[in-house]
Amino acid sequence: MTMEITIISAETLCMNGKPIRKDTYVVVHTQSCTKFFKTRTEEEGGRKNPSWNEEFLVDGANNITLEVQWKTWLGFKSVGAARIAVSKFVSENSLQFLSYRIWDEKGKRNGC
């Protein structure tokens, strides 16, 4: 089965208690981690939340992981991730808009 996933935006992203509004991107991993997709880097910033509005076609995945990363001058840092069982939101011929909270590597939820 092929799914179309659109990464639209993120709200209230934080790193060390400070808001992140630019230089972010999302990596979409399948359960095997052998195939992944990456959005462009949001470079606008300012007062708005990061947005990408990018579509990806994912084949045969049971689980996907969405990881928000932040580009810094030292490389990149993981802001947080959400692992999602595809069975939770897939049904025949349905269009759904879903929102997921991301969690950092310490198991704390991200958000200012």
Quick synopsis:
Helix content is 0%, strand content 46%. It has strands at 2-9, 14-15, 18-19, 24-30, 36-38, 51-59, 63-72, 75-85.
CATH class: Mainly Beta
Total beta strand runs: 8
The name of the CATH architecture is: Sandwich
Our count of domains comes out at 1
- Which parts are unreliable, with pLDDT below 50 for 5 consecutive residues or more? none
CATH topology, anyone?
Answer: Immunoglobulin-like
**Major sheet, described briefly?**
4 strands, antiparallel
Tally of separate helices: 0
Q: Give the N-terminus to C-terminus distance in angstroms.
A: 37 Å
Strand order of the largest sheet: 5-4-7-8
Counting helices, strands and paired strands, the structural category is mainly beta
Helix fraction?
Answer: under 10%
The CATH superfamily bears the name C2 domain
What general outline do the C-alpha atoms trace?
globular
Q: Strand fraction band?
A: over 45%
Structure write-up:
It is built from no helices and 8 strands. By secondary structure, it is mainly beta. The protein is globular, with a radius of gyration of 14 Å. It has strands spanning 2-9, 14-15, 18-19, 24-30, 36-38, 51-59, 63-72, 75-85. Strand 4 (24-30) and strand 5 (36-38) form a beta hairpin. It has one domain: C2 domain (Immunoglobulin-like). The strands form 3 sheets. It has a 4-stranded antiparallel β-sheet, with no helix packed on it. It has a two-stranded antiparallel sheet with strand order 1-6.
